[in-house]
Amino acid sequence: MSADFTTPELPAQGIIQPLGDDDRMLLSSYGEFLPVQPMQKLITEGEEQNSLYFVISGNLHVMTTRSGRQVLLGRIGPGETIGEVNIFHPGLASATVTAVEFSQVWRCDRQSLEDFMNVSPLPASHILIGIASTLSKRLREMNDKVAIVGHL
């Protein structure tokens, strides 16, 4: 968002950082900007999910339910993304994402991202590399956690 919150725009951070101003403005038009109030669910575990979310401001918690208990899987802040898996493999959300404070996010569904890819393949390739890097990082972190639990 702009400094005065009147003009939606994607900031040059996270997976969006490699894009120039014109490409970021174009990409902005392929999604929608959403305000998320504290304690509001952005994604609900078990529900259909086919969108990528980019956090512009605020903080969100990613939670799942295991054996009847809420388990915190991660914290997501500005410049980070949520929903990457479902861009490549649409299906049910594997976790619930809830705002812990007022947050602003940009949402882009799979079809809109594909449309952007067809219009702007080079900028889209930067986005896809960013998504792949995010997924790889999270997979490594999870592998490390599993390895630690396996040694206990």
UniProtKB/TrEMBL annotation:
InterPro entries reported in the protein's UniProt record: cNMP-bd_dom, cNMP-bd_dom_sf, RmlC-like_jellyroll
Domain Cyclic nucleotide-binding: 15-117
Coiled-coil residues: none
Superkingdom of source: Bacteria
SMART domains tied to this protein: cNMP
PROSITE patterns with a match to the protein in the record: CNMP_BINDING_3 (PS50042)
Name of the molecule in the record: Crp/Fnr family transcriptional regulator
Species assigned in the record: Phragmitibacter flavus
Lineage: Bacteria, Pseudomonadati, Verrucomicrobiota, Verrucomicrobiia, Verrucomicrobiales
